[in-house]
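Appendix B, example 12.
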Amino acid sequence: MTFLNGIAASNGIAIAKAYKLVEPDLTFENKTVEETEMEVDRFRTAIGKSKVELEAIRDKANVELGADKAAIFEAHLLVLSDPELNGPIEDKIKSEKVNAETALKETADMFVMMFEQMDNEYMKERAADIRDVTKRVLAHLLGVHLVNPSMIAEEVIIIAEDLTPSDTAQLNRQFVLGFTTDIGGRTSHSAIMARSMEIPAVVGTKTATKDISNGDLVVVDGLKGEVHINPTPELVEEYRKVHQEYEVQKAEWAKLVNEKTVSTDNHHVELAANIGTPKDLKGVIENGGEGVGLYRTEFLYMGRDQLPTEQEQFEAYKAVLEGMAGKPVVVRTLDIGGDKELPYLHLPKELNPFLGFRAIRLCLEEQEIFRTQLRALLRASTYGNLKIMFPMIATLDEFRAAKAMLEEEKEKLILAGQSVADHIELGIMVEIPSTAILADQFAKEVDFFSIGTNDLIQYTMAADRMNERVSYLYQPYSPSILRLVKMVIDAAHAEGKWAGMCGEMAGDETAIPLLLGLGLDEFSMSATSILKARSQIKNLSKADMESLAGQVLNMQTTDQVIEAVKNATK
């Protein structure tokens, strides 16, 4: 028996035979061609076949996983149609008289290398997209069939170096019980999609494809991040019990779906969900979400070749507000930039896009884009309990400018006879340290705060959370981060306002007791985390957690904080 350690990317236990997603042989000879037009036609035919396949994968993802996941394949389709990629390939065929395979690979390799060298996570992901698309086109040129995970018809665990978005989207949940990969992390496409599909996954094992053979019995422990190869019958039986216990635990959590989230001393907090599209509402409702704490509207803008119209946006916002039937819906205005780009906006490239022209900074300059979104939101406001928040606010002047535009658009709509909700709460994301430090002044003007810990932590620690070499500095339980969180919550409460959190930390098992003790009012997380968090909070005393929070704020290290939480919640 062999044992591998990796990263727990998606919870659960899976036991089944290994199915290796083996790359086909895509080697080819560099050839000189005389009939260059025929070679260009051969390349275009391969592009056409690839397009048909990707459209089918996109449509399947749209139905089974939602529009935000299908947007990945829209991006692949855009790569397929990109003249900046295809043009140089065709030019190389004609000018250098090389076969299509050579022109494709040499050109694609150049773009991949260029993107991978950029200090920008979004551009690095585009390199992965180009690789995925290039592999598909090359397979068609060579007449080779790529392995199709959607054709799997028996219970298996997928073993791969990495799973591309198109691989993951094709997984049949009936038969694919889990997967493990050599590379990847919790924020990779495959990990995110595994959690959406509720498939246990362990990534980043480094050697899974080397150590595991087709047909090996494999246990994937997505709770601990462990993979067992050809385990003993005793270990298999032990894991079957763990799996049953986990399923029983999930069934127990499910009983809380219609209950409020209250501590043992009857303190109520709101557990809300982060969503990307109206299709995500099903999961929110099934998991007992008390609201939507973060509606990421950028998914409306992504995976397409032009801006969404005001009417398209209105319909999406209206659907979410109606679907939540009066429960609060916090909509974040367009948060583009950093690791999320819109190719059709043709914005200049930046050396450090996470600290650059993004989110509210972009919206305040590109006013027509912003005003269109604000009008759509205002028109939809009468269909539910809408709250609007602005992302990446660094100064009071930015908040005031954004609020002024909202008020102007509201006045225009009312003058035109359009119904608008009487009162819409207006808040900000707190993700910049300067804003957290000045929270007492912001609290006088905003209606609420939502703490975006993903960015707040990396900005406070001056450490890119996507950079493996400094990942040890991404410390949500650091006393410095907890002090900033406390400052924001206390500032809100001093002005009679509420404070929420919509970063990964809000659904974190170690962070939840601390946040309860610090007085957080609203916890917004992935829908599948809500019932587990509700169960945890129902077993905590608010008074005890306040005492715990007071202790950890005076500690020196993250490890000390973690140990204190463990001792206080035994």
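The CA atoms of residues 115 and 126 lie 7 Å apart. The chain has a mean pLDDT of 90.
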